[in-house]
Design a protein that fits this description.
Elements (H helix, E strand, L loop, with lengths): L5 H8 L9 H12 L8 H8 L2 H28 L6 H9 L1 H31 L11 E8 L2 E3 L2 E3 L2 E6 H18 L2 H29 L3 H8 L12 E2 L5 E2 L1 H16 L4 H4 L7 H30 L11 H4 L8 H6 L8 H46 L18 H15 L4 H29 L14 H20 L1 H24 L10
Antiparallel strand pairs: 1-4, 2-3, 5-6
Helix pairs in contact: 2-8, 2-12, 2-15, 3-4, 3-10, 4-10, 4-12, 4-17, 4-18, 5-6, 5-17, 6-7, 6-15, 6-16, 6-17, 6-19, 7-15, 7-16, 8-12, 8-15, 10-17, 10-18, 15-16, 17-18, 17-19
Length: 525
């Protein structure tokens, strides 16, 4: 018969997560996870939607407000509960284990792995700048063309599934980064510290060069002499086939791209148990990281408007003719294949300023950016599944640490396997649409958790309290709800399936928790 001290003794023999992230590393994790390829790509799609320089900037300002307010709110929760799993833990403690599970379930199936896959595919896209044979059209194994399935307003399917040279490069990069992160938090942190400095320097260079050196008279006249075009609240914009909506709604629709580009700032909370002095460093890292990146994002779009006109023609064979809306680094090739031309605003802007050399330098910067971004996503995401497994809500083996390197090795491997499968399943933009709706749902719920915990645990230690509470968090909830409702209406192909995936987690939770009944969950540190 075991003594009461036996269980703690056994627990003491288990490997523990290593506190290897200081303030600099935690801040770099925030910034590095946010800055990927999106800022250099999605402004083209946003520009096509809004058709207004003012609304292009407005889309990024709305994203900036939501991101910074969300980070300031999460700072309170992270300092209060600095445990592995972060947002999963916040939802579990405030709203109950079901909501924590639904977040972890959706994170694994769509949010984290989908983001890693999308960034990996984008990495392959920009390798294609140097090696044209690396492209989505160059199939190695075309498994199937999934036909569109119409269910009322929702269109499912319409996907090419298989392995092409572009997503193969993405898969290889994901596997390499997963292996790097198997060897310890300090090695992963070292990679995370090096790449964000390079990314921030590259993005800051685009801002300075675009605004002060490479601005063109044609772009300045086209964009700033008629800056408020189509920006009136009562103006009408076309979305899809024959659907016209007002300016507020079109900005909400445009959030798909900008929110995706600014997402993953919350990933530092997943690795909270490995942050030194987390009650101080987590809120600081969230505030410093998100504030810096959002400022750079807004200024980058101002730089784009100084170099290229917003409005463009997808059949044009010059950079100025294609504008931001159809920006690409090879306009002649894109004009010959307008339906498959990649959006490459960053490289187009640099090409306009410095020719082929500028485009090549920007492509290198984006490759560094996407590689570093995925390192942060891979490092942090595995900590959530590890925490779930420790609670008995995921495969038991996922809750074990490598005996030597003290990393969630099985969790990293499982995450990589599913991510690689997603890389085979669709394009960057399709994955992007799929992710943002589900992300917003759980951001809303987590901000709600802040209100709940203020009421249910009023005496809990709060080393940091959310700035602007309760007004700013309440505004966040209202704005995010509006965006989600708009996305359900105007981006149904992936938002409704995303919602269905969340709901499917409910029966899975009860099946899993029934299997774990009678067991005491080993809560992650």
């Amino acid at each position: 018969m075991s003594t009461p001290a036996a269980a703690p003794a056994r627990a003491a023999q288990e490997p523990e997560l290593v506190k290897g992230l200081g303030l600099t590393s935690a801040t770099m994790l925030v910034m590095g996870s946010m800055i990927g390829s999106g800022i250099f790509i999605v402004s083209a799609d946003i520009a096509r939607l809004v058709d207004s320089p003012a609304l292009l900037i407005a889309a990024w300002l709305v994203t900036g407000f939501l991101t910074v307010v969300g980070a300031l709110s999460y700072g309170e929760l992270a300092a209060m509960m600095p445990k592995a799993g972060g947002q999963y833990v916040f939802l579990r403690e405030a709203l109950g284990p079901l909501w924590g599970f639904l977040y972890g379930w959706t994170l694994f199936l769509v949010i984290q792995t989908g983001t890693i896959a999308a960034v990996g595919v984008a990495f392959g896209k920009f390798v294609g700048v140097f090696f044209p044979s690396i492209a989505a059209e160059n199939w190695i194994w075309h498994i199937a063309k999934v036909p569109p399935l119409h269910l009322g307003p929702v269109v499912l399917g319409n996907l090419d599934v298989g392995l092409n040279t572009q997503n193969l490069v993405g898969i290889v990069s994901i596997v390499v980064l997963t292996v790097i992160n198997l060897f310890g938090i300090r090695i992963g942190a070292l990679v995370q510290n090096v790449f964000p400095f390079a990314k921030v320097a590259g993005l800051a260079g685009v801002v300075v060069l675009g605004i002060f050196v490479g601005r063109t008279a044609e772009a300045v006249a086209a964009n700033f002499s008629n800056f408020w075009r189509n920006a009136a609240l009562g103006s009408q914009h076309e979305v899809g086939a024959g659907v016209f909506v007002g300016a507020l709604t079109i900005v909400a629709v445009a959030q798909v791209g900008s929110l995706f580009s600014a997402d993953a700032w919350n990933n530092v909370t997943f690795a909270a148990a490995e942050v030194k002095n987390p009650r101080r460093n987590l809120p600081l890292a969230l505030a410093l990281g998100t504030g810096t990146v959002i400022l750079l994002y807004v200024l980058a779009n101002v730089a784009y408007l100084n170099v290229l006109p917003l409005h463009g023609d997808k059949h044009a064979t010059t950079l100025m003719g294609r504008g931001i809306q159809y920006a690409t680094d090879d306009p002649e090739l894109a004009a010959a294949q307008p339906e498959s031309a990649p959006d490459r605003v960053g490289t187009a802007v640099m090409r306009q300023m410095f020719g082929a050399t500028g485009a090549a330098l920007m492509a290198v910067a984006i490759l560094l950016s996407t590689f570093g971004c995925n390192n942060g996503l891979i490092l942090s995401g595995a900590r959530v599944y590890y925490a779930m497994a420790r609670d008995g809500l995921f495969f038991k083996s996922v809750g074990k640490l490598h005996p030597t390197y003290k990393t969630p090795a099985v969790s990293l491997a499982v995450q990589a396997a599913w991510t690689c499968a997603l890389c085979l399943s669709g394009t960057y933009n399709q994955l992007l649409d799929y992710i943002v709706f589900a992300v917003l749902v759980f951001y809303i719920l987590t901000i709600v958790a802040l209100f709940v915990l203020r009421r249910t645990r009023p005496d809990a230690e709060r080393p940091y309290k959310a700035i602007g509470y309760p007004v700013l968090p309440a505004i966040y909830i209202l704005m995010a709800l509006f965006i989600d409702v708009v996305l359900l209406r105007y981006k149904p192909q992936f938002t409704w399936p995303g919602l269905i995936i969340v709901l499917l987690g409910i029966p899975v939770y009860f099946l899993w928790s029934r299997g774990a009944a009678g067991k005491t969950p080993a809560r992650a540190a």
